[in-house]
UniProtKB/TrEMBL annotation:
Keywords: Decarboxylase, Glycoprotein, Golgi apparatus, Lyase, Membrane, NAD, Signal-anchor, Transmembrane, Transmembrane helix. One of its GO terms (molecular function) is UDP-glucuronate decarboxylase activity. It comes from Aquimarina algiphila. Residues 4-230 form the NAD-dependent epimerase/dehydratase domain. It is a single-pass type II membrane protein. Its cofactor is NAD(+). It is found in: Golgi apparatus membrane; Golgi apparatus, Golgi stack membrane. GO terms for cellular component: cytoplasm. This is SDR family oxidoreductase. It comes from the Bacteria. GO terms for biological process: D-xylose metabolic process; UDP-D-xylose biosynthetic process. InterPro entries: Epimerase_deHydtase, NAD(P)-bd_dom_sf, UXS-like.
Length: 319
């Protein structure tokens, strides 16, 4: 049985990856310090003998007994609210954490895939963003702690590949959503759905003309799985190119939740990218991958998940 270590396993994407690798017949070693994740996301796997969980901060030395075939490094705060609350930890998990895991990959002769992000493109001046674009990041702005950690992460990963021959993969993930996002993580999908379900106004930041392109989690996991098993060592964008303005998106959520909530406008966070859409030519050509789930269907599934929360749980999210 092949063994995979997944860091950030109790988080949104990490927990779905655990499910996928278990389904594919892997032995899964899950690691997380629960700083932004929730153990409930993986509790259903605890009964399986091919699943283990380590509560560990990956910025500290990482040791795993025995052989290891693959590592997926997904530990990192991912929502702007989270990484602005814990900026130093964010920088550390992208830098020291990645260094530790690359060291482990080298020691175990394991292939490692690291979770990079569309944020490496910053507030992009090339649209849609292809992998050749170098990006436009304000290093000392508030989002710099995340963006630069991820840019460093890519650099050190390529260096381990070039200088140590470690088998590496880099996925640049564009806004992904679905069940198990944290209700109060501040990202726009749980924020709008939570507000609608609580009967609150939806908070649009700025004038709402900024765009994002939302990818359903199952499509994202499929892309990551294919990239891991491919031979391609350079970064690959995985996301859904269906672009929407945040204003239109808020209107979609109001319709979907069949509420008559109003939208209210709040200041745009500093350095909030004005446009974002993945160019997925590489993913199509190299991985034969493209997203299958449309936004309206994906949002319905996501809404069903959030409807499972009690009134008290919904009220707890008070950002
Ligand atoms: P998440 O916050 O739900 O999950 C991150 C997990 O990492 C959490 O469970 C958290 O407790 C854990 N973690 C953080 N620091 C840690 C540390 N030092 N040691 C051990 N565990 C630690 O976020 P997510 O959306 O699942 O994102 C997962 C990864 O994917 C991140 O690396 C993120 O940067 C990347 N990503 C996600 C998106 C997206 O749209 N979801 C987009 C781009 C990149
Ligand atoms: N956003 C918003 N209202 C909210 C939360 C987010 O208008 O309550 C906006 C945010 O300013 C950004 C977009 O929605 O332009 C996506 O934000 P998110 O935090 O989900 O992801 P990211 O900015 O990292 O793409």
């Amino acid at each position: 049985m092949q063994k995979v270590l997944i860091t950030g396993a109790a988080g949104f994407l990490g927990s779905h990856l655990c499910d996928r690798f278990i389904k594919e017949g892997f032995h899964v070693i899950a690691m997380d310090n629960l700083i932004t994740g929730d153990i409930k996301n993986i509790e259903h796997l605890f009964k399986l003998k091919q699943f283990e969980f380590y509560n560990h901060d990956v910025t500290k030395f990482v040791h795993v007994p025995g052989e290891l075939d693959y590592i997926l490094h997904f530990a990192s705060p991912a929502s702007p609210i989270d990484y602005l609350k814990i900026p130093i930890q964010t920088l550390k998990v992208g830098s020291l954490g990645t260094h530790n895991l690359l060291g482990l990959a080298k020691e175990k002769n394991a292939r490692i895939l690291i979770a990079s992000t569309s944020e490496v493109y910053g507030d992009p001046q090339v649209h849609p963003q292809n992998e050749e674009y170098y990006g436009n990041v304000n290093t000392i702005g508030p989002r710099g702690v995340y963006d630069e950690a991820k840019r460093f992460q890519e650099s050190i990963t390529m260096a381990y590949h070039t200088y140590h021959g470690v088998e590496t993969r880099i996925v640049r993930i564009f806004n992904t959503y679905g069940p198990r996002m944290r209700l109060n993580d501040g990202r726009v999908v749980p924020a709008f759905i939570g507000q609608a379900l609580r009967g609150e106004d939806l908070t649009i930041f700025g004038d709402g003309m900024q765009t994002r392109s939302f990818c359903y989690v199952d499509d994202q996991v499929e892309g990551i799985y294919k990239l891991l098993l491919s031979d391609y060592v350079y970064p690959v964008n995985i996301g859904n190119p269906d672009e929407v303005t945040i204003k239109e998106f808020a209107e979609e959520i109001v319709r979907l939740t069949e509420t008559d909530q109003k939208v209210i406008y709040k200041p745009l966070p500093v350095d909030d990218p004005l446009q974002r859409q993945p160019d997925i030519t590489k993913a199509k050509e190299i991985l034969n991958w493209e997203p299958k789930m449309g936004r309206s269907e994906g949002m319905k599934l996501t809404l069903e998940y959030f409807k499972g929360f009690s009134k008290e749980e919904l009220q707890k999210s008070d950002h």
